[in-house]
Write a structure and sequence with these properties.
The chain is an alpha/beta fold. 29% of the residues lie in helices and 23% in strands. Strands 1, 7, 8, 9, 10, 12, 13, 14, 15 and 18 form a ten-stranded mixed β-sheet that branches.
Length: 487
């Protein structure tokens, strides 16, 4: 089974069983541990740059990456995998988002604007993932988008190599821990969970039915674990559940929109987002939207509001954010996996919301970052408490997690919404797995602990290629200690 999976193929998986055939080995994440293998990022000397996708810009991206690596003189670029310490491989896409007028009095003088991504994994001799990353364009770039993506990818790779240490982490799962597991719940982390369960060496079925339905199935004894974007203390049947809560990864919920002729990426304030979803801001050329988007061509068009129709952790994150920034929204609709929506049309799952926005001009919706990228949808920058308009990406979601603590205390789950960090994307969140603390037989318990150990070590290296952020090291270390208490 190849270690690389395209974004499109991952998100096209249905709610189907993913049976894993390979046993994953060590990764290098946490301090003060010892490993069973010796490959380390800091010791890399030679690199092969393999395919970066199949689109028309893929070869140009590859050539630019090779050029920048050679110019850095940190790594020797070689042909073929045999002489290479590591292989860089990935996928990419670049698409037009609209046009920008270059002359205020002539619409015929314009420049096409673009959006896109470059997503990669770096694998070692034993085919384990040593590092992964997804680059999206800078908001303002002087060179073309191809150069911008490639240059930033190389910059992040070289920084990762320079900052890597010899400290490593080991995996405690064994070949005996292979009892089949059934997991259901959140769609927010579903693309990553599908990939993880494919790579983990354990037979796992994942049903992306939404956080609420997943927790209900866990309470009914229909699944072995539930995935949820909602902190345990805010889950309605939590009093009926005896579970441990494990943070697994960080994500960002983004406002997606369909305005083909806008050209520029939009800036949206929290107050505007609350007003749109409350139904009090109804036109795209509303003065409150124009104020944050000087020079952007905003049409006199109705805003078609799209929200989730199912019980959703993504909805919990979105409405929790709106409640934090708007007293009016909090009193009128509040937060939860379900709310009484003042405006809009419902769609099931992150996938459903993205699909509806894509086919509806004038629409706005909210999804996890990877769904916006996979559907080639524009997503807005959101003003954070520091007064800066920030787009979601790996760096800005990481900034939101700075100082997060308390992940293993069910009464004090961390919230990184509306983080005070000046570089933070304000609608960022942890997502969790809920594991029963009783009722699992010995084989299931061994399988669960082996899977969690793998996800919290080796699996963390795969997060970034899909736009998710690995757990902070101290958080992952505490979670690993908590896994031991399940045994």
């Amino acid at each position: 089974m190849p270690s690389w999976f395209s974004l499109t193929s991952i998100l096209r998986f249905s709610k189907a069983a993913i049976v894993c055939l390979a046993v994953a080995v060590c990764l290098f994440v946490l301090p003060k541990c010892t490993a069973q293998t010796a490959e380390a990022l800091h010791s890399v000397q030679t690199i092969q740059v393999d395919s970066l996708g199949t689109g028309k810009n893929a070869d140009a991206l590859r050539q630019r990456v090779i050029q920048r690596l050679k110019k850095s003189k940190r790594l020797e670029v070689v042909e073929g995998p045999a002489p290479a310490d590591v292989v860089l491989k990935g996928t990419s896409s670049i698409w037009a988002t609209g046009s920008i007028s270059l002359h205020p009095q002539s619409k015929s003088v314009s420049q096409t604007s673009y959006q896109g991504y470059l997503s990669v994994e770096l694998t070692g001799k034993a085919h384990q993932v040593l590092w992964s990353y997804m680059v999206t364009p800078s908001r303002f770039y002087a060179s073309g988008i191809t150069d911008d993506l490639a240059d930033h990818l190389v910059l992040h790779l070289l920084e990762a190599i320079q900052n890597d240490t010899a400290n490593t982490a080991s995996i405690t799962g064994t070949s005996e821990a292979r009892a089949p597991l059934h997991v259901a719940g959140a769609t927010l982390p579903a693309p990553l969970y599908l990939k993880w369960f494919e790579s983990s060496g354990q037979p796992v079925t994942y049903d992306a039915v939404g956080s609420e339905a997943g927790v209900q199935q866990l309470a009914q004894g229909k699944v072995d674990m539930a995935a949820s974007d909602v902190p345990l203390s805010d889950i309605e049947p939590a009093s009926q559940l005896r579970v441990a809560e494990f943070a697994t990864v960080l994500g960002g919920v983004v406002p997606i929109y369909n305005l083909p002729r806008a050209g520029h990426d939009l800036n949206l304030t929290p107050e505007v987002l609350a007003g749109i979803y409350a139904g009090t801001i109804r036109k795209w050329n509303d003065p409150r939207i124009r104020d944050a988007n000087r020079g952007v061509s905003l049409p006199d068009m109705d805003i078609a509001v799209v929200h989730r129709s199912d019980g959703s952790g993504t909805t919990y994150v979105w409405t929790r954010f709106l409640s934090l920034v708007s007293a009016e929204w909090k009193s009128a609709a509040g937060s939860g996996t379900h709310v009484t929506w003042p405006a809009g049309t419902g769609a099931a799952g992150n996938e459903g919301v993205a699909a509806m926005v894509k086919k509806t001009q004038g629409a706005i919706g909210y999804v996890e970052l990877i769904y916006a990228i996979q559907h080639e949808l524009n997503y807005a920058a959101v003003r954070n408490p520091a007064g800066r308009f920030i787009k979601a990406d790996l760096a800005s979601i990481t900034a939101a997690a700075n100082g997060a603590t308390g992940t293993t205390n069910p009464g004090l789950p961390p919230s990184i919404l509306n983080s005070a960090d000046r570089d933070a994307y304000p609608i960022s969140t942890f997502t969790w797995l809920l594991v029963p603390t009783q009722g699992l037989d010995a084989q299931k318990k061994a399988a669960v602990t082996a899977l969690l150990n793998w996800m919290l070590t080796a699996g963390q290296k795969q997060c970034a290629s899909l736009g998710y952020v690995p757990l902070p090291h101290d958080v992952a270390a505490r979670e690993l200690q908590a896994v031991e208490s399940l045994k």
